Amino acid sequence: MPEGDTVFQTAKRLDSALAGGVLTVSDLRVPRFATADLTGRTVLDATARGKHLLTRFEGGLTLHSHLRMEGAWRVFDHGERWRGGPDHQIRAVLATAEHTAVGYRLPVLELLRTEDEEQVVGHLGPDLLGPDWDPETALRNLLADPGRRVGDALLDQRNLAGVGNVYMCELCFMARATPWLPVGELSLPLATRLVSTAKQLLDANRDRPVRTTTAATPAMSRRLPRERLFVYGRVGRPCLRCRTPIRKTVRDDRPTYWCPRCQSGPTG
Predict the structure, then answer these.
(1) How far apart are CA 21 and CA 96, in angstroms?
(2) What is the value of pTM for the model shown?
(3) Radius of gyration of the chain (CA)
(4) What superfamily in CATH does domain 4-121 come from?
(5) How far is CA 122 from CA 10, 199, 261, in A?
(6) What residues act catalytically?
(7) Domain residues of the chain, as ranges?
(8) For domain 135-258, is the CATH number 1.10.8.50?
(9) Is 221 a residue whose pLDDT tops 60?
């Protein structure tokens, strides 16, 4: 599932391409909204809320989409050939005189009134890349269930919105805790640092074309110039701290990477 920085970048591309333009093409290829016609409406903005995308139009309408595992929005210049998958995977087409946005394999696509947006994103915790970011609320949410595993608590978008599986693994490594450690076993300073580090990592990657956690600070960048991530995707390779081989566990189709020496707590 895309991380919050990926969704943020997608929203930024959509906003840059469509905002202020008048729709010349509106094609929503899902049965419930197949007859909806947004042609002639001005696109107001496209914004990310956690891992959700909200594209707003004049007249008080919002197109809500979620990428989940396979979805993607591609933006093309007028007349440019579309590239992103076969036509049968297209779920939405929004075009102005200059650009066309094509939504591929979108598992969630719905048109709603802008005033009803809270029905689809109101459950989310503070957005790590949003104007509502509140570290105190995020920390309180994270610690609300002491028996819950750290990894699960980080991935729960109701606690803080934007952390996906990559950042979860990287954050746990940086905190020297396995993802299966109960949240209640974290010291308050460590839990606070976990939240602040999550914010730091997503901020550092919000405009990067290639995600990195090792280069989130200048000191790390100088020490590890050739490594982008600490543990994610590095199974069997030496830990960047201790050289112990990184391990991987798959549960519910979600891979989890960790260092058995650097990280304390239960293992899987």
Answers:
(1) 6
(2) 0.91
(3) 20
(4) MutM-like, N-terminal (3.20.190.10)
(5) 21, 20, 40
(6) 2-3, 51, 254
(7) 4-121, 135-258
(8) yes
(9) no
